[in-house]
Amino acid sequence: MTSEPFILQAMVILPLLGAVGVVAASQMGVGLKFIRQLVLMNVLITFVLSLGLVTGYDPTKVNSSGQFELYQFKSEIMWLGSPSNDVDPSAPKIVGPDIRISLGVDGISLWLIALTALLMIPAVLVSWEAIQERAAIYYALMLVLESGMIGVFASLDIILFYIFFEFTLIPLFFMIGLWGGYDRRWAARKFFIFTLAGSLLTFLGLIFIVLSHSWMLEAMTGRSAPLVFSIPHLIEHFPRLLAEPQNAAYWANVSPWIFAALFAGFAIKVPLFPFHTWLPLAHVEAPTAGSVLLAGVLLKIGSYGFLRFALSMVPGACWWALDFVAILCVIGIIYGALLALAQDDIKKLVAYSSVSHMGFCMLGLFAFNNIGITGGMLTMINHGLSTGALFALVGMLYERYHTREIDAFGGLATRFPMFAFCFIVVSFSSIGLPGLNGFTGEVTALLGMFKTRPVYGILSLSGIIFGAWYMLQLVRNTMYGRVKEPLTEGHGHPATAAHAATHTAPDASHGHAAHSDGHGSDGHGHGHAAPVFATHHTDLNFRELAALAPLLVLIVWIGVAPQYFISKMEPSIAQVVKGLEAARPANK
Amino acid sequence: MLELLVILIPLCPLLACLAITVLGPSLKENSHWLTVLGNAGAFTCALVALIGVATNGFPEGSQTIPLYQWMSIPGSSNTMALDITIALHIDSMSAIMLTMLTFVATLVAIYASSYMHGDPGYARFFACVSLFTFSMIMLVLSANFLQLFMFWEAVGLCSYLLIGFWYEKPSASAAGMKAFLVNRVGDFGFAIGIFLLWRTFGSVDYVDTIFNPAALASVAAKYPGLLETICLCLFTGAIGKSAQFPLHVWLPDAMEGPTPVSALIHAATMVTAGVYMVARCTNLYMLAPHAQLVVSIIGGLTALIAALIGLTQTDLKRVLAYSTVSQLGYMFLGLGTGTFLGIGGAMFHLVTHAFFKALLFLGAGSVMHAMGGVIDMRQFGGLRKLMPKTYATFLVGSLALAGLFPLSGFWSKDTILASVRMAAHPEAHKADAHPATTDGHDAHGKPAESGHGAADHGKAGHGDAHAAVASVDRTKVKLFGIAATTWYEILFWAGSFTAFLTAFYTFRAVFMTFHGEERIPEEAGHHAHESPSAMTTPLIILALGAAFLGLALGHMSAIFNGTGFFDGFLSKTIPGTAGHHDADWFVIGLSTVAAIAGIGLAWMMYAERSGVPAAIAQAVPPLYRLSLNKFYFDELYYIFLVVPVVCLAQLSRFIDWIGVDGLVGFISRIPGAIAKLARPIQNGLVQFYALSMMLATAMLLWALLVRPGL
């Protein structure tokens, strides 16, 4: 498939149409069954389109002037103002803004769009049975969210980016607030206000970039310059403007402030320590699909923002802020892991582990070299996959027992072997076991940081010990040991019922555990009737396996052979690094 | 053709693992066939590869076979590129490891097919064993440090899964987690070592680092401390993986796993990965004499401590586990001497140990099998008539472990001790020009320090390395103000004493288990019998190896005036090992006396169940308790590591709740507070509004009319 811009346009529009269709269908009295299928179909088509995007993106493509054609699948429509290239030098000196609806992907956004389209599949499948009330609205919101998330990554215009950026907040706000857990309203409000407060500052920073570009252009050419909002244009032209000493001096003064403004919004999104406190609450209260998308995609908007705007447009200020950000990352990695160690709710544990993992991601980006940024990018993808999968798995457990208390569970490996297998694979991916995706990203990010600032590399490396600790403790407490499950059929107090379940643990497990070395031949495991469990819950069904399968495939693929993914993102990352290298201060 | 065979070595067990994973539910108790076939196939290929290396089938004596590019990130003007290719590096050292590994793995798989019979996790067990075999083969064949690290962790995963195989047992899942976490601590240092190596050399490929003597020498000349640091960091990984002091605590607990696993992973193969890695990095360590000294000290200390703990343990498998820790300590002791005699000896001990320790573990498993799962030596005794085959083979293994002539353990252990003694008296071994006569024993030959050793061996590249090696003067090396030679002297006597302890605790176990009155625990019921032939046949084969391997390939074939086959073969990778060494009769005599004394003492104390052990225990209660409680390492770690981290975690939780979230909550209340200030104005009283409007209008008028310039 060639670089057809319609693929990208369709990926943004199709979910929106789907949302409208779903609402319309429900108004016409169509049943939930049909609506779910409609939504799934929509999501699958979008995913297939994303495959076209991935296979069609050619990182080696060059344009007529021999430069890499980084942005592909491009399309744009004039939206506000007059196009800057139409400006006649002799024309009157009033030049308007140049805002376009401009879409395109490069090697960075490509993978995040694909990740979004992929994660929608498990997001829909885990909601299948869990969402029964007002399901049409729920699915419509989810599709709107998908459109927003793809739009964020696909926007090549600052205004468009910002619109999509804020646009993602609204559907998730309602998803948490309406379909969430006990404390959903507070969680939704906290999530909304936190992110909105930050993003307003970010918007200020973005606007200031545009204004500064215009001012510096005026200073250089002496003519009135248009307000250019095109992201690729700005990235490409800043170095040229800064060649002028006067501009460089101005920029050196202004860019730290711009960085600070960008930082406010993006650091909350990532989230970096100490801006993370909205995250666990939002995760715990959100419905499963909300958590999957929140962790899988929405957090990446923060790190993507850093990469696309901070690192690309104000590289000098990034060098200035390097130590500050790196220290926050290191604290986040260790502190997040410690917090995860202290949790008694599985979902909270996973939420805090996100803080730790995103610390690795940001550490990679702030290594400012190809290796580190590649590692940061890989960590974004990997975190989306493994944390998305973990939330999906926790959701599956919750759907069965209506509790997520770690202490309420035990011996699930005996109870649900397939579930335990998936859970352990994903846990090891999160721990960073080589051969699975987590290792690939983290080792690359750390190698990058080890080159730039070894001390942060070493400090954050200690996170791998704690990471293994909390994850293995979770696996041990819930998957291993004797079967222990909460009895929640119709009961309101899962914790009290949990103890009763231990007495009904199957004979097989008793007999088994009694042997000190349980060597085989002496009869146990033979002739036992099928074990009787306290509840009638079954192992993963086909739908749940289908939700996890694509994630597991990618978890192994990226672990075993990540080169395919890296090769597509490399030229785009090289461009970012080029800018960073040029802006590198002499003393850093 | 040979390359294809080398690729087949890891491929066979990998395919077996995948096949069992997919077909497991339908294969059930036939799963072992796939593992046995996969391991046997790998063994066949490894054997052919070994012969290929021996007969110079590989043009360079070694070969790196690239498989695929794992990761390639281009650099920019200021930064380095990262290029990792998954490749297989075959040379004589990896060929030796592979042959040993696949051979033991095949025997263990056959043994386990009977041992694991009837277990509900039968297929899972063999899938894990195949995965382990694959990972271990890939670890051995690694051609760069990152790949080494990846499979280093992968074997750790297999170990975790197999230790916790009976996951319903809390102690098993706890032991698995402990093993993984303790290893992670070691891997933390290991990773830093690899990072440093990468930063220094710009590559993690062996070809650019440890196989590139010129680069090593130039770095050593420029930053002498750097290589020492790298070596110490890498050694941290080895400490974890090979269960050395102070990270040895996981290995005894790992005995929770099924016994075949203990034999394969926790005795013969995985735990030797650390030894293999350090031996692999010989060129690097040769330039870091301080780090080498540390390796020796840690090794010697571990050997001694583990042997002391082994004296009082009552669980047969744990005795063997501590003995493994102790023997691994010997290997490091040899590696750290900085002599090629020691390195060759350590590698040889690795191979012989694999045979006799796998034999002992499988023998213990056979006893356990008969005793209904009981492994506490106090509960059974006098089994030699009941289980004659197990007894005979176990005895061979014990004699080999005790290091009695002419069994395999004698050759390898004495070589290590001789090398330590050589390091303690370098002047006695100087160069041919100064034949050693000072202390009576006439070992001269061509030790490493002479610098001549390398001249007539191998490739030019290795020769360079040795030239650099020669430039390091070990006699000036000091640690904590004590000269290296003094350290080695201490270590030699510690090692010799450990040899005595080893013989003692090994035969304590033998006598307690097989001698005296026949006693069988209740758990065994009427099942007590000799194990089936699927279990005894591997025992017999291993016993043959444990008995004759040393004689056949011996390091000290020098007694018969010549270089042993093993050294000659290993010298294709580490040329120095082929140097001619005369027998060190002092060491041979001393260690033989120690072994016989140990066995004799054990006979006196345990063969007839006398009251002597109890009397000794009562005579020195603190020492007895120290040994019985494993020097309280677990308790110390619990109090000083686990508890603080858990407290810190709870503290973080509190801080996050009160501090961070509280601060955010505080900030969010500021707008509300400001609003509160303004709220009284909106009091709903029309008069108040009218008054305010009046006042405001008046002020505006005043401002506009009276003070227009304001």
Essential attributes:
heterodimer; A: mainly alpha; three-stranded mixed sheet; B: 710 residues; mainly alpha; two-stranded antiparallel ribbon; two-stranded antiparallel sheet
Fraction of residues of chain A in helices? over 70%
Order of helices and strands of chain A: HHEEHHHHHEHHHHHHHHHHHHHHHH
Task: Please give the largest β-sheet of chain A.
Answer: 3 strands, mixed
Spans of chain A of at least 5 consecutive residues whose pLDDT stays below 50 are 490-529
Q: What average pLDDT do the residues of chain B reach? A: 83
Query: Major sheet of chain B: size, sense and barrel closure?
Result: 2 strands, antiparallel
Regarding quaternary structure, what we see is heterodimer
| Helical content band of chain B | 55-70%
Number of helices of chain A: 23
Which chain pair has the greatest contact?
A-B, 74 and 75 residues
- What class do helices, strands and sheet pairing of chain A give? mainly alpha
> Within the largest sheet of chain B, what's the order of strands?
1-2
Structural class of chain B: mainly alpha
Morphology call of chain A: globular
The number of distinct β-strands of chain A equals: 3
In round numbers, the mean pLDDT of chain A is: 85
